[in-house]
Amino acid sequence: IWNNCLSKLENEISSSEFNTWIRPLQAIENEGQLKLLAPNRFVMDWVKERFFVKIEELTNEFSNNTLDLVFEIGSTAPSLPTYTKTVKRSEAKKVGPSFLNKMYTFDNFVEGKSNELAKAASSQVSENMGRAYNPLLIYGSSGLGKTHLMHAIGNAILAKKPSVNIVYVHSEKFVQDMVKALQQNTINVFKEYYRNLDVLLIDDIQFFASKERSQEEFFHTFNTLLEKKHQVVLTSDKYPKEIANLAERLKSRFSSGLPVTIEPPDMETRAAILMKKAAIVNVDLHQDVALFIAKRIPSNVRDLEGALRRVIANAQFTGREITIDFTKEALHDLISMRDKLVDINNIQKTVAEYYKIRIADLSSKSRRQAITRPRQVAMSLARELTSLSYPDIGDAFGGRDHTTVISACNRVKELKESDVKVSEDYFNLLRTLSH
Ligand code: ADP
Ligand code: MG
């Protein structure tokens, strides 16, 4: 059925969309269910947003409404906990799949002050496995790129040496697999599997908290690997010392190599990430728009990506160009709250300081260019950064008519394209006001 859907879809959507979003999906059909596996959340959310209805229509058509459609992140590669036979390194080069996400590479990772240390350490580790920093621990809050970097290490190593035994595993999965192995009496196989790895990437170790048996087991695995100088990379949402209910010896062991933190990215980095993410899906995102979003979604990169996905999906759906106004609409519910935070007085003050004029000049009748230009810029910024209407903005600038505000905005828009000085000033001001 999925193959039928594929051929239909291939004819109905553009080939770039098909190749980007549909082709990576893997299908499992059984018991009245069609499960579509996406390689990562980005693809999954995208497919759900853009193609769910279409795919559902097609599956209903081909199955006479007997199939339920389910989306998951994953792949049809054999799942890890099949510890049925012992794999000895001398017998088999590879222990199995690595569970690495190919999209998470160093190339796709945008560097900024907030993550440069973590990125540099990760790249060192990928070049000098087991010899640079062992274990490498990347810690920081959720959605800041820890998992991405961890996969990037694995991908970089495999790109150079495909025979290296690398496994990425989430701590929660490690715990589940261990419990399963204990129940099935295959704990020795489980142990051997992990202890034979060249590189173990284990994500979100805070999940080991309160799970004593797993901590114990992991501690041994971990020590065995370190003794053999095999690389271990860990991530955690906290510094180990701050994880409650984690054995002391693990805490000190986890931080014994190189602990590096990853911080929330600053505005420029957030904007650069957005542009990178857009480029990956062949969307040309204007820097102004990227900054506009970056300024308003300050929390974490995952949220930022969600917002971007929404903007791109809306634009493709409506066939409209991604401008700031369009973005404002598309993200209306996400940003309206924050917009009220940049107030117009602050804009006027910042602009006046920037151009070294008096705040009162902005509202005055003066027609000197040294005054009118900053005034136009300030009006544009007010339009861009606040949710005030044109008449409101006119009022704030000495009771000017709303048509004056509109022409000021249009003028600045033109100048931003044609006059480097204006575009630079505008960009600088936008940046200052956005912090
Ligand atoms: P964490 O593991 O820290 O919770 P993730 O690694 O899952 O965060 O990152 C969340 C999302 O943000 C991923 O899609 C990732 O690609 C993206 N991301 C985070 N930081 C960056 C960055 N510096 N450059 C590019 N993408 C990033
Ligand atoms: Mg993570």
Describe the protein:
56% of the residues lie in helices and 9% in strands. It has helices spanning 2-12, 15-22, 41-63, 116-127, 146-160, 171-183, 187-195, 212-227, 248-254, 267-280, 287-296, 301-318, 324-330, 332-339, 344-355, 359-363, 369-385, 390-396, 402-418, 420-434, and strands at 26-30, 33-38, 68-73, 136-139, 166-170, 199-203, 231-236, 258-261. Strands 5-6-7-4-8 form a five-stranded parallel sheet, sandwiched between helices. The chain has a three-stranded mixed sheet with strand order 1-2-3, with helices on one face. Helix 3 (41-63) links the parallel strand 2 (33-38) and strand 3. Mean pLDDT is 87; it is low at 78-92. Magnesium ion (MG) binds next to helix 5.
Largest sheet: 5 strands, parallel
Strand order of the largest sheet: 5-6-7-4-8
Q: Return the string of H and E elements.
A: HHEEHEHEHEHHEHEHEHHHHHHHHHHH
Radius of gyration: 27 Å
Percent of residues in β-strands: 5-15%
Q: Count of DSSP helices?
A: 20
Termini separation (Å)?
52 Å
- Tell the overall outline: globular
Q: Mean of residue pLDDT?
A: 87
Secondary structure tally: strands? 8
Low-confidence stretches at least 5 residues in length (pLDDT < 50)? 78-92
Residues in helices, as a percent range: 55-70%
Small-molecule components bound: adenosine-5'-diphosphate, magnesium ion
Keywords: ATP-binding, Cytoplasm, DNA replication, DNA-binding, Lipid-binding, Nucleotide-binding
Region (Domain IV, binds dsDNA): 316-435
Domain AAA+ ATPase: 132-336
Subunit structure: Oligomerizes as a right-handed, spiral filament on DNA at oriC.
